[in-house]
Q: What sequence folds into this?
């Protein structure tokens, strides 16, 4: 019986730890990212795995794309309720919103990163030419 309880306790701990996994990066965490970094270095710096990974091809060049969710805003809400004997219960909840941050790699080196609309505004011709391919592939993941 004790062995079953120990196994169940371990499973509960694993599930709890996974639910606490980081799911978005902050602007401060993105600041040190620079061209030439490997996908592993970016992932390590952000302390999280990419949300999505896919490839885009232009001409004879193949690019790897990784997406991370970047926290773009945060706000807190509170609600109060009154219980027996005049006791007040207050619940405070923090909400975050995020946008996809796209990292573009060529030959396992970071060549460009930014929000979706940054790619189409880039002065670098290979980047701006890849923008529609990245958009199409990214949004196809969520419309399947």
A:
């Amino acid at each position: 019986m004790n062995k079953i309880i120990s196994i169940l306790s371990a499973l509960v701990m694993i599930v709890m730890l996974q639910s606490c996994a980081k799911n978005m990066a902050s602007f401060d965490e993105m600041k040190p990212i620079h061209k030439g970094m490997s996908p592993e270095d970016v992932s390590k710096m952000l302390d999280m795995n990419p949300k999505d990974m896919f490839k885009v091809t232009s001409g004879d060049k193949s690019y790897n794309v990784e997406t991370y969710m970047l926290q773009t805003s945060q706000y807190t809400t509170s609600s109060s309720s009154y219980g027996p004997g005049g006791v007040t219960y207050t619940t405070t909840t923090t909400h975050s919103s995020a946008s996809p941050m796209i990292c573009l790699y060529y030959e396992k080196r970071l060549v460009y990163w930014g929000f979706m609309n940054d790619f189409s505004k880039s002065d670098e011709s290979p980047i701006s030419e890849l923008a529609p391919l990245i958009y199409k592939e990214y949004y196809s993941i969520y419309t399947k």
About this structure: The CA atoms of residues 118 and 128 lie 9 Å apart. Residues 15-19 have pLDDT under 50 and may be disordered.
